[in-house]
Structure formats: C-alpha cells, structure tokens
Amino acid sequence: MTDEIRQAFAHPSERAEASATAPYDRISLRDYVVEVEIGAFQAERGHLQRVRFNVVVEVSPLTGPIDDDVDRILSYDRVSEAIAAELEAERINLLETLAARVAERILLEPQAERVFVRIEKLDRGPYSLGVEIVRTRDGDQPAGQAHVAVPHPRVVYLTNAALASDNLAGWIDQGAALDAPLVICVGAAETQAPQAAHPLAQRRIDLLAIEQNAWVLAARDPRCKVVGTRTELDWAMKNGQICIWAPSKIVLDAVDGPSATPRDAQALACWFAAEMEAKEMVVIGEAAAQCAVPVRSVALDAVQLK
Is the dihedral of CA 289, 153, 104, 67 positive or negative? Predict the structure, then answer.
C-alpha cells in the first residue's frame, strides 16, 4: 500500500515506467509553468494564474541509426507547442478538459504511443491542485474527437424589426434550404437591461439580454434551437439543425475575445461569424457593416433572402 501511494504521487515518468507494458522510449517536459486564465469559478475569470505542466510521451524505439537527425524523433518542441495551441484555442474551465486536449494533440504525432499529462494550479492556495491523465493511441487514430473538420455556416443576423416581420418564417425557410448550415444571431430586445456599476457585471447582463431574445425567437419557431457551446454548434451543423446563438459562453471563454460590446449586436455577430469561419453573414433589417467574412444586407420588405 505504501508503494502504491508513493507511485500515485510520483512524477509521470515514474508512473510511466511502473505501468510499462512495452519497451517504449520516453521524452518528457518537466515543470513547464505558464500564466493563463483558466477555471470554472467566477473568481478565476479575468485573472491570470500559474499552471504547471509535466508531460511524458512514450514513443516506439527507432529502427536503424538516428544519424543525429531531428526529423526522425519527436521533438520536445512539439509537446510545448501542443500545450500552447490548446491554451490559445479558447478559454478552458477545467484542467481535465485541458489535459485531455493536450494529450489528444500529442497523440496526433505519428511517433507517440502513450502520453501522461499532469497539470497543476499553483495559485489557488498554499498547495497545488491538479489532475493527471493517461491516454494511449488507439490503432492508427488518437482518442477523442478534437480537430474534426466542421461545416462553414451561414450566419443570419436579425434585427428586432426583422424578428417582428411577417417575412421571418420565410427567411428561415430559405436559409435552411441553402447550401450551408444556418446559425441565427439576434441582439437584445428594445427593453433596457438592468444597469450595473461594474463593467464586467454589465457585460454579463448584456449578454444575457441577447440570450433572452434568442429564447423568444426559439419559442416562435420550434425548428430553431438555442445553442451556446462550440461542441453543440458543431454537432448541430453536422446534423442539419437550425441554431440561434446564445453568446455568453463562447464570448466569455474566448482567449482573444471580441472588441465589440454586446450592445453592438451586429458587430458581435460579425466576430462570431469570423470565429466560425462562416460562408457568409446576412444582415436583415439594417445596413451591414464591414466584416472578416463576406457580408450582405437584406431589406425588411424583401421576400427573398438570397
């Protein structure tokens, strides 16, 4: 029992050696510390904290001479790059999520067979809090669903006047029949949202005001589903579901978030369209501003969406 406890808290390299079932070589990244915004608690939002990574990757021994050729081995840089890529992709709440994504990305490397990932938060108290996972290559494919290509949607932004239009159902019909998944964005209702003294609190309130209007639209047309996470959006687009974007989670979790405030709903929808690599953005009911994706306007009295 004492030996089991010691191994439970041992470095991943010792854990790897103790559980080895094949003669793998190992490379390791030890005590790699970065500052990042991470965590599910509200107190962790808007603040950087130190996170420490220890990673051990088991690789199949090379056949033949290495010839001092870096292209024949799994570079240490690929391990640190995997961490950086996942930290830059989006804001993450759980260490478990981050560890799984880092492991999956490392297992995309053809040399990698098994990976141990330990991640610890260093600033949550006079101790470290962490998780450790082990992932193994499954045949020729790594575990998990990360990095799967998703469709490029058509983002339709509806003004409040468009939401009240008799043409609304027809526009949704046409959008659903076009050559890309349909994701609808709305702004807040005309009723003023509550006002808060703190800007972060007001941002939350304004985002929730948009989501209230999204639910109003969903109640009018049962084909439209309010969706707030990237995972849900990806699934919905692959399965032909019409989505209404609830922005809070994606906006608040974004590493490089929008410069637009929730009160500038069209600009926020434009940022979202760029994040989703949308086929185009269609603005119904007002002039379309510049956007990183193709954008066009549709007048309120227009029957045809395209």
Answer: negative
